[in-house]
Design brief:
about 25% strand, alpha+beta, about 210 residues, 4-stranded antiparallel beta sheet, 7 helices, Jelly Rolls
Length: about 210
């Protein structure tokens, strides 16, 4: 995908964002699509009562702000760098032109958006029907890019337990309990980074929520 963006003849300059910085804020104009070249980005929504909900964590090769292409006037969420990240912004008009001029890019972008929508549906089902232990295991596997053609990333940035709790709709204490449990059973390792092992998949595949007690 990145190769298509750079081969377009457009002068695009990536922007470096240190960990903790805001890439774009909720309510600001939605005038560009952004491509993550490197790093990890948290997408969160702030309610009118000031409560934050993490709706996703994206990484290398993912797009941000694609709502601009659907006529979204302002950002519906805030994107911030979880670790030092490099992001390539593409102005909305240029992105539309690229999609019309480069059929291969358009096909890949369409496939990406379909996969993203499928992921959102799976996330909703996960929230509605699965226990918090299974939701946490699935989230860690997704962040590790388990099952991707290029292989799992395995090592993740050290996400705070508060962020993980917001992502799975649980509490920090429950996340702490399950993280320690996963580590004790050899499913993960974590110190400065989180290392996800393939064996964590057993938590997702097993039906009983307390099978590891």
């Amino acid at each position: 995908m990145e190769r298509f963006l750079h081969s377009s003849g457009l002068t695009l300059r990536a922007v470096e964002y240190p960990a903790g910085s805001i890439i774009y804020a909720q309510g600001t104009p939605c005038d560009s699509v952004l491509f993550i070249q490197n790093g990890s980005v948290k997408v969160s929504v702030l309610s009118s009562r000031g409560r934050e909900a993490v709706v996703g964590v994206l990484g290398r090769g993912d797009f941000l702000g694609e709502g601009a292409l659907a006529g979204q006037p302002v950002r519906f969420a805030t994107a911030s760098a979880l670790v030092d990240s490099r992001v390539l912004p593409v102005p909305k008009k240029r992105m539309v032109r690229l999609l019309h001029q480069q059929p291969k890019l358009a096909d890949r972008f369409l496939s990406y958006m379909l996969a993203r929508n499928l992921r959102l549906e799976e996330d909703l089902i996960d929230q509605l029907f699965n226990a918090s232990e299974k939701r946490l295991a699935r989230t860690l596997l997704l962040l590790a890019r388990y099952g991707k053609a290029k292989g799992p990333q395995r090592e993740l940035p050290r996400l705070s337990q508060e962020v993980l709790a917001e992502m799975i709709g649980s509490t920090r204490s429950r996340v702490n309990f399950f993280m320690n449990k996963f580590r004790r059973l050899g499913f993960i390792d974590y110190n400065r980074t989180i290392t996800v092992h393939d064996s964590l998949l057993s938590v997702v595949l097993y039906d009983a929520p307390d099978h590891l007690s």
